[in-house]
Amino acid sequence: MTFLKRHEENKGGARAVIITGMLVMSFVLTGCGKKGGMTGPKQMGTPEVGIIVIQPQRASLTTELAGRTSAYLIAEVRPQVGGIIRKRLFTEGTDVKAGDLLYQIDPASFEAAYSSAKAALARAEANLVPARLKAGRYGDLVKINAVSRQDYDDAAAAVRQIEADVEAGKAAVETARINLAYTKVTAPISGRIGRSTVTDGALVTSNQVSALATIQQLDPVYVDVTQSSAEMLRLKQNLASGLLRSKGADQARVKLLLEDGSAYPLPGRLKFSEVTVDPSTGSIIMRAVFPNPKQTLLPGMFVRAILEEGVNDKAVLVPQRGVTQNPAGNSMVMVVGADEKVEPRLIKVARTVGDSWLVSEGLKAGDRVILEGLQKARPGTPVKAVPFGSKAEGTPAAAGKPAEAKK
Q: What is the pTM of this model?
């Protein structure tokens, strides 16, 4: 038993020595690995950045303004004589033409008045014939003193009085005829008629305040937009200085965006602008006319009009992804300098041109603006400039292509 016990103790001690040796070797190897990692320097190449080269290009400048549509023509239908509406002769919400019969007012009393006026005229015309004959006879007799001068003057005056009665009778007949015609209420213009405010049997009065119905001509339609007077002055100054070039006949072209953001397919024309500035808003109203054959545009719709201002033949454009803001709120870009080092550059932007900024100051032709790899472009660090879009994650640059500016 003693021998066996000693044997087991020796066996356990040997196992402990082996385990201890293995642990020591593991620590040694780990330390060597760390030491080798610390002594081996990490090799890093010059970072690549995607750049575009600034080249002045042609840009069509536009301004986007909010506006409302309105009917080209509006006519409120009102009765010009009073009476009972016998029948309504149109369907609400349909198109009518000028002259179409809309309402029939009971014409009985007007027909009677017309007949009475014609009878009075006939009576006056009948009295005129013997009066003229009598005056003619008296004219011959007064020459031989067969009748007194007074009798002749009375006969001549009677003729003139009856002639005046005839003229008054003619006017009364015409008035009665017009009033009778007014019992037929017709459409003054062509267009779409809205709801009727009266029904059959309703009593209407001459020139009443409330309209019987409203007709609106919807092809073409007006679009009224507002522009600040400051923007108008800026545009005139840019045209005068040569910064913008007028597009001639296309200067008055207007495009339209609907309420859902879709583009209206037909272009319009700018007709006029107000000659006075609204003192409460500092803006002026401009009116454009758009064709509306399918009547897509309805009066009162909110739209956005895109007005073509002019052309900048030497526009400096920088994609928006390359422009940042410094802590002071100024716009800036990172450029690659002549010594292939990153330089920050403050710029002034005037407006957006699609997905780019129109730069008015700070950049010139030939400048290399960094668009990709800005996180590696620290000021003063050397970089390797490659064309933007040559990397997999880049997209082709839009520089060098004609652009359309929108404000």
A: 0.61
